[in-house]
UniProtKB/TrEMBL annotation, chain B:
GO biological process: maltodextrin transmembrane transport; maltose transport
Keyword Signal among record annotations: yes
UniProt name for this protein: Extracellular solute-binding protein
Keywords, alphabetical: Signal, Transport
InterPro entries: SBP (IPR006059)
Similarity section: Belongs to the bacterial solute-binding protein 1 family.
Gene3D superfamilies on file: Periplasmic binding protein-like II
Signal peptide limits: 1-22
Pfam families, per database record: SBP_bac_8
GO CC annotation: ATP-binding cassette (ABC) transporter complex, substrate-binding subunit-containing
GO terms assigned for molecular function: maltose binding
Length: 716, 395
C-alpha cells in the first residue's frame, strides 16, 4: 500500500536532504583540504614566527643594553666597590634599576672578590659568587679601552648550588671611572651583572606558542621547555663565535592552534550551512505554501466538480502551469456543463417524446377502435337485417370506417417511411386542380354535415400540370383540409391554389378555433396536437401535420402556419414542382379500370380463407381463372402445374412462407410476374420483396383500385 | 669750587647706587645642614639671626641621609657652610672639613670633649653637645623595674608581642653588643671587625632578634610611637629622645643604664655633636659669620639652656656642672650613664665601619654568610674602602 505522500513535502524533503548531503560533502572536502594545508602552514608559520621572535628578542636585548650602558660610568655604582659609603645610594640605584626596567630581573655588583659588593633583590647576595668573580676579574684585568657589555649564560646549578638543568642570562656591564691618563683612560672597579628577565618577552609572545631558550643543554629560567619533537623550530640567537655565548630559541606551536583554526573554519562552514538549511527550510516552507495553497484551491475546485458544481474557478495563481490547469479545468467544467445541459434538454425532449408516444398510442388505440367498431357493428347489424335499403346504408358506413382505418394505417406507414428516410417521391404528371377537386369531394359530406363551406379557388393557378407525386400531394391536401374541417365548427374552409413558375402555393384557410402561440411552436412535431384537449375533442393521431411537413420538405417546399385563437388558421404549403404538359386522360383511366383477364390463369397463395374469399371476389370481375393454394408448398406445386400468368403470394404462410416461394420460383423462372400480397408493409419490406424477385406488391387490406392498377401495370 | 661740588655730588650718588654697596646692604646668609632625629636647632638659629643679623638657612635631613647627601655633593663642593653632625662624621675626608683653630674653642670644654672633636689629631669641629649615648627607658606604669640582664630577659620572656623597643638595624644600637665584648673597634688605626668578639656579638644580636621581644621591622619613629602609647614596656634610645618621651609619659618615664647581656655590660658610644665646616668653609668669605655662629653656639647662655631647650647635654663643663647640681633624678641618671660609655672613634675609617657592620649584619641575618664569613666580609670591605680612602687622601 502506498503512503499518502505530498508532492511538495517530497520535494521539500528531497531538496533538504540533497542540500544537507552537499553540505556534509563540502565540509568534509574543506576539512580535508585544510588538514592538508595544515602541515605546510605549521612548518612555515613556526619558521616565520621563530625568525620574528629571534629578531624581536635581539632587539629587546639590544634596547636593554642601550638603556643600561650608561650605568657603566655611573658615579655611585662605579665607586661603590671601592667606597662602601655609597652603599645606600647604590642600593637605591639598583632597586630603581630592577623595579623600573622591564627586562631586568635582578642586579648585583661584583668586584672580583669572593664577596658580592651589593645586589638587589637580596637573594642575589646568596648566589655563588665565584662564577661572576671569574668574569669580573677577567674584565678588570683586561682594562678595555672601549665599553663592551658581555652576555653570560650561567647555569642555575652553579649559582644556587643545587641540581638544575636551567640557566640564567646575564648582561655584564663593566663599572669604570674615567681617568685623566692617556694610557689608562678608565679605572675598572667591578662589573654590574644584570639578570635578564625573559618574562616580558615571553609574555608578549605567549600566543605564538611554547617558547624556550636553550644554551647547549640548559634551558633558560622562566621558559618552559617542551618534550615535543614535532613542529619545533630551533635557531640560534647568539653564537659562541660572534657573541661569545651560545643561545638558541626553540619554538613549538601547538597543533591545536592550527587544529583550532581548522575546526573554527569548519564550524563556521557548518554554522553557515545550518543557517542556509534553516533559510532553505524556511524558503521551502514558503514555497510549499505558495504551491500547496493554489493546489489545494484546485483540489477544492476539483472536489466541487466531483460533486457536480460545474462552476469556473477564478483564482489568481502565481504559477503559469497552475493557471493553465485552472483554465483547463474551467473549460472541462464548461464542456461538462454544456453537455449536461444538452443531455438534460435531450432528456426533456425524450421524456416529452415518450409522453407524446404514450399519448399517441392511447389515441391510436382509440382511433383504431373507432372505425373497427363501425366495421364490427355494421357486420353484426347486416347479419340480422334483411332490408336492402338498410344494408346499403350500413355497407356505406362500413366502407367509411374501413377507409378511415386504412387511412390511419397509411399515415402510420408513411410516417414510418419518412422517419426512416425511405419514402421516395414519384415524379409523374399531376393535375393539381383535379387532385384538389378529388380531395374536396372526400370532405364535402363532412363539411356539409357541419354546415361549413368548403371553397376551392384555383383561378390564380396558371399551370395545373406538374411533375410530382400525386399520391403525396393528395395526402398533403387531405391532411390540411381534414384538419380545417375538423377544427372548424362554423364558417368556411377555403383552399387557394396559386403558382409562380415552379413554385406552387396551397393555402388552406379556416375560420376554426385557431391555435395558441405555444401550440404553434410544436404543431409540426410528430405525435403532437395543439394540446391534449384537442385530442379528446377532435380525435386524431397527431401525425398529420408532421407528415405534411415532411412531405413538403421532400418536395423542396415548406409549410407555414399563422393562426389566431377564435378567428382561425391559415396553413400555407409552398412546393417546387416542375411544370409539364397535360397527360393523356386514357392511360390514367386504364390503370384503375377493371383489367380484362379472360383466359388468364391467376394463382393466389393465401392461407386465410377470408382473404381468399375477398381476393376471389375482387378478381371475379376480371373474368380471370383464379386458383388458390392453401400454403407455400401447395403454391409451388400449383405453380409448376398451372404456370400462371400472375402469381399472387402471401408472405406469411404455413409450411413455406412467401419469400421462400418467391426464391424457388425465381430460381427456375424469371419472367412469371410475382406479386406479394402482404400485411407486412413496414419500412424496408417492399424493397426486400423486390430484391428477392417480386415484381410488385399489394398491401393488405387490399384496395381494389390498387389491385387493378398493379394488375393493369403488369399486364400492360 | 663748583667743579669740586659736582664731583662730591657725583661721588655721593655713586656710593648710594653702587651695586657692591647694594649687595653689602643685604643680610649675610649661612647654610647649615642638620640631622633631624636629634635636636631642633631652629629656635637657637632664630635667636642667632636676631642677634647678629645673619640669616641661617636650615637644611634638615635624617642622619643617614645627611651623610649620603653630603657625600653626594662633596665632589662638586656644593656643600652647606656649616653642619651640625655627630663627631664621627668628621672623618669623612670627602667632605673636606676645615681644621678649626684652637682659638675658636671655648675655654670651658673638658679635655675629653676636645679630644672627641679631633680627627687624626686635627680639630675638625667645634663641640656643642656631648653624650648622645643610649639609655634604657621604661614605663613605670607597665613595669616596675628596668631590665638588668637582657639575655635572661630575652630567654625567659614569653610574650605575644614585643616588649622592648630596639632600633635593630641601626648600628649605634648594635655596637653596644660589640662594645660589651670588644672595647675598641679600631686599634692603632686598624679596624678590628674580623674578631671572635665580633662574631659572638653578632650571634648574641641574632639571639635578641630571634627571642621575639623586639620587632626589627618597627624602626625609630614606630618605636617612639609604641613606647609613647604604652605598647612597649622598655625602650632603648638616645638621650636626645628624653624630652619627647617625658612630655608624653610624664612621671611614668623612668631611665636606667643599659642592661647586661649575660656577663657582659652593653656599652653605648658617646659622642659630641659638633659644628663643622665642610668644603673648607672656614677659608671662605663667610668665615667671620661662621665664627660668629661658633661663638654663639659655645656661649655660656646657649650652653646653659641646651638641656632646658633641647635636652642635650652641653659640651661646656660649667654648664654640665650646673646641671648635675639640679635635683633632677632623670637628668642625674642620664649624666651618670655617661660613665658606661665608650667615646666614639672619629677616625675616618669609622664611617666605613658603620656601613660594613650594617652590610655584614644584614647579610648574616639574611643567610648569605655564616658568622665567620660575615666578619671576614666586614673586615674585607672596610679594609678595601680604607685603602682607597688613604689613596685619595694621599692624592
Amino acid at each position: 500500500m502506498k503512503a499518502n505522500r505530498s508532492i511538495v513535502d517530497e520535494i521539500k524533503r528531497k531538496i533538504t536532504a540533497l542540500f544537507s548531503l552537499f553540505l556534509v560533502v563540502l565540509v568534509a572536502m574543506v576539512g580535508f583540504s585544510l588538514m592538508q594545508q595544515k602541515a605546510t602552514l605549521e612548518q612555515e608559520d613556526v619558521k616565520r614566527t621563530g625568525a620574528s621572535l629571534i629578531s624581536d628578542f635581539k632587539a629587546q636585548v639590544n634596547e636593554l643594553i642601550y638603556q643600561v650602558a650608561p650605568l657603566s660610568e655611573d658615579h655611585i655604582l662605579s665607586t661603590l666597590p671601592s667606597d662602601l659609603l655609597f652603599t645606600q645610594y647604590a642600593v637605591k640605584a639598583l632597586t630603581n634599576l630592577v623595579d623600573n626596567t622591564d627586562m631586568v630581573k635582578s642586579a648585583f655588583i661584583n668586584d672580583g672578590s669572593v664577596f658580592t659588593v651589593e645586589g638587589y633583590p637580596f637573594d642575589t647576595l646568596r648566589w655563588n659568587n665565584s662564577v661572576f668573580s671569574e668574569h669580573a676579574n677577567k674584565v678588570l684585568s683586561q682594562q678595555r679601552r672601549t665599553l663592551k657589555i658581555d652576555k653570560l649564560v650561567v647555569p642555575v646549578e652553579s649559582i644556587e648550588k643545587k641540581p638544575s638543568d636551567q640557566a640564567k642570562l646575564f648582561l655584564a656591564i663593566p663599572l669604570r671611572q674615567k681617568l685623566s691618563s692617556l694610557m689608562r683612560p678608565y679605572k675598572y672597579t667591578g662589573v654590574l651583572f644584570l639578570e635578564v628577565d625573559l618574562e616580558p618577552f615571553l609574555g608578549s609572545n605567549q600566543e605564538k606558542g611554547s617558547i624556550w631558550l636553550t644554551s647547549q643543554e640548559l634551558v633558560l629560567e622562566g621558559t618552559q621547555s617542551s618534550d615535543a619533537t614535532e613542529g619545533v623550530y630551533r635557531s640560534p640567537i647568539y653564537s659562541l663565535k660572534d657573541d661569545f655565548v651560545a643561545l638558541d630559541l626553540q619554538l613549538q606551536r601547538e597543533a591545536e592552534v592550527y587544529s583550532n583554526d581548522i575546526l573554527r573554519a569548519v564550524l563556521y562552514i557548518v554554522l553557515i550551512g545550518l543557517m542556509l538549511v534553516v533559510l532553505l527550510t524556511w524558503y521551502l516552507r514558503r514555497l510549499a505554501k505558495r504551491l500547496t495553497n493554489p493546489m489545494q484551491a484546485l483540489e477544492r475546485h476539483c472536489e466541487r466538480l466531483k460533486r457536480g458544481h460545474y462552476v469556473s474557478a477564478k483564482s489568481d495563481f502565481e504559477f503559469r502551469e497552475l493557471r493553465t490547469l485552472q483554465v483547463t479545468l474551467n473549460q472541462l467544467a464548461k464542456q461538462i456543463k454544456e453537455q449536461i445541459s444538452s443531455l438534460e434538454s435531450e432528456k426533456v425532449k425524450a421524456q416529452s417524446s415518450e409522453r407524446a408516444k404514450s399519448h399517441f398510442l392511447a389515441n391510436m388505440s382509440h382511433e383504431l377502435r373507432t372505425p373497427l367498431n363501425g366495421i364490427y357493428g355494421v357486420f353484426q347489424l347486416m347479419k340480422h337485417h334483411r332490408n336492402a335499403a338498410d344494408s346499403k346504408e350500413l355497407i356505406a358506413q362500413g366502407m367509411t370506417s374501413t377507409e378511415t382505418l386504412l387511412s390511419l394505417l397509411n399515415d402510420l406507414l408513411d410516417f414510418s417511411k419518412i422517419e426512416a428516410g425511405e419514402l421516395k417521391m414519384e415524379s409523374a404528371t399531376v393535375d393539381v386542380k383535379s387532385i384538389v377537386t378529388e380531395v374536396k369531394q372526400e370532405f364535402v359530406h363532412t363539411a356539409s354535415a357541419k354546415q361549413i363551406d368548403l371553397i376551392i379557388h384555383t383561378e390564380e393557378l396558371a399551370n395545373p400540370y406538374r411533375l410530382g407525386d400525386s399520391l403525396r400531394l393528395k395526402q398533403i391536401l387531405r391532411n390540411l383540409i381534414s384538419n380545417a374541417v375538423k377544427f372548424t365548427s362554423d364558417g368556411s374552409v377555403t383552399v387557394i391554389l396559386q403558382d409562380g413558375g415552379k413554385h406552387l402555393s396551397i393555402r388552406v384557410i379556416d375560420t376554426g378555433a385557431g391555435i395558441s402561440e405555444v401550440a404553434l411552436k410544436k404543431l409540426f412535431n410528430r405525435f403532437q396536437q395543439a394540446d391534449s384537449s384537442t385530442t379528446r375533442k377532435y380525435g386524431g393521431t397527431g401525425l398529420g401535420l408532421a407528415i405534411v411537413k415532411q412531405l413538403a420538405e421532400l418536395m423542396d417546399g415548406r409549410v407555414t402556419v399563422t393562426s389566431k385563437e377564435g378567428i382561425g388558421s391559415e396553413f400555407t404549403v409552398e412546393l417546387v414542382l416542375d411544370i409539364c404538359d397535360a397527360p393523356e386522360q386514357s392511360i390514367m383511366q386504364d390503370l384503375q379500370a377493371i383489367p380484362a383477364l379472360k383466359d388468364k390463369n391467376l394463382l393466389l397463395a393465401e392461407d386465410n380463407p377470408l382473404n381468399q374469399k375477398i381476393f376471389s371476389a375482387m378478381i371475379k370481375p376480371t373474368e380471370a381463372n383464379l386458383v388458390i393454394a392453401q400454403d407455400g408448398e401447395e403454391a409451388i406445386e400449383l405453380y409448376h402445374e398451372l404456370k400462371p400468368d400472375i402469381f399472387f403470394v402471401d408472405i406469411q404462410m404455413p409450411k413455406k412462407d412467401g419469400l421462400k416461394v418467391c426464391s424457388e420460383v425465381r430460381e427456375q423462372d424469371k419472367t412469371t410476374p410475382l406479386v406479394a400480397v402482404t400485411a407486412n408493409v413496414m419500412s424496408g419490406d417492399l424493397e426486400n420483396y423486390q430484391q428477392l424477385g417480386f415484381d410488385n406488391c399489394v398491401a393488405k387490406p387490399i384496395d381494389m383500385k390498387k389491385l387493378y392498377e398493379v394488375i393493369n401495370t403488369i399486364v400492360s | 669750587m663748583p667743579r669740586k661740588m659736582l664731583y662730591l655730588v657725583f661721588m655721593l650718588l655713586l656710593l648710594v647706587y653702587n651695586p657692591v654697596n647694594a649687595r653689602a646692604s643685604e643680610p649675610p646668609e649661612i647654610d647649615v645642614a642638620v640631622g633631624l632625629e636629634n635636636f631642633d636647632f631652629q629656635p637657637l638659629f632664630e635667636e642667632f639671626s636676631a642677634k647678629t643679623g645673619i640669616k641661617v638657612n636650615i637644611l634638615a635631613f635624617n642622619n643617614n641621609q645627611l651623610k649620603s647627601e653630603l657625600l653626594l655633593y662633596a665632589d662638586a663642593l656644593q656643600l652647606p657652610d656649616a653642619v651640625i653632625i655627630p663627631s664621627d662624621y668628621m672623618g669623612l675626608s670627602e667632605l673636606q672639613f676645615s681644621q678649626v683653630p684652637e682659638s675658636w674653642l671655648s675655654k670651658k670644654l673638658t679635655q675629653k670633649v676636645i679630644e672627641n672633636s679631633k680627627v687624626n689629631g686635627e680639630l675638625k669641629g667645634v663641640p656643642i653637645m656631648y653624650g648622645n649615648h643610649l639609655v634604657l627607658y621604661y614605663n613605670r606604669a607597665l613595669v616596675p623595674h628596668p631590665i638588668t640582664d637582657l639575655q635572661t630577659y630575652a630567654q625567659q620572656t614569653v610574650a605575644d608581642k614585643p616588649t622592648l623597643g630596639w632600633n635593630f638595624y641601626e648600628m649605634y644600637w648594635f655596637v653596644t653588643f660589640a662594645n660589651a665584648l670588644q672595647p675598641n673597634l679600631i686599634q692603632a688605626g686598624v679596624p678590628q671587625l674580623d674578631t671572635k668578639a665580633m662574631r659572638l656579638a653578632i650571634s648574641n644580636y641574632q639571639s635578641l632578634l630571634n627571642s621575639g621581644i623586639i620587632d626589627a621591622d618597627c624602626v625609630y619613629q614606630c618605636l617612639m610611637n609604641r613606647f609613647k602609647t604604652g605598647k612597649l614596656d622598655y625602650f632603648v634610645n638616645g638621650i636626645w629622645a628624653y624630652r619627647q618621651l617625658k612630655d608624653k609619659l610624664k612621671d611614668d618615664l623612668a631611665i636606667a643604664p643599659l642592661p647586661r647581656w649575660g656577663n657582659y655590660q652593653l656599652m653605648s658610644l658617646a659622642s659630641s655633636h659638633v659644628l663643622a665646616f665642610p668644603a673648607n668653609g672656614i677659608e671662605s668669605k663667610k668665615s667671620p659669620h661662621l665664627k660668629q655662629l661658633v661663638d654663639f653656639m659655645q656661649s655660656q647662655k646657649v650652653q646653659d639652656k641646651l638641656w632646658d631647650e633641647l635636652n642635650a647635654l652641653p659640651a661646656n663643663g660649667d654648664s654640665l656642672a650646673e646641671l648635675i647640681k639640679r635635683d633632677d633624678k632623670a637628668l642625674s641618671q642620664l649624666i651618670a650613664s655617661l660613665h658606661e660609655t665608650y667615646p666614639q672613634p672619629n677616625e675616618p675609617i669609622m664611617a666605613y665601619i658603620w656601613e660594613a657592620m650594617l652590610k655584614g649584619l644584614t647579610r648574616y641575618l639574611g643567610g648569605v654568610y655564616s658568622v665567620e664569613e660575615t666578619t671576614q666580609y666586614m673586615q674585607f670591605i672596610v679594609t678595601k674602602s680604607g685603602q682607597n680612602e688613604s689613596k685619595s687622601q694621599h692624592r
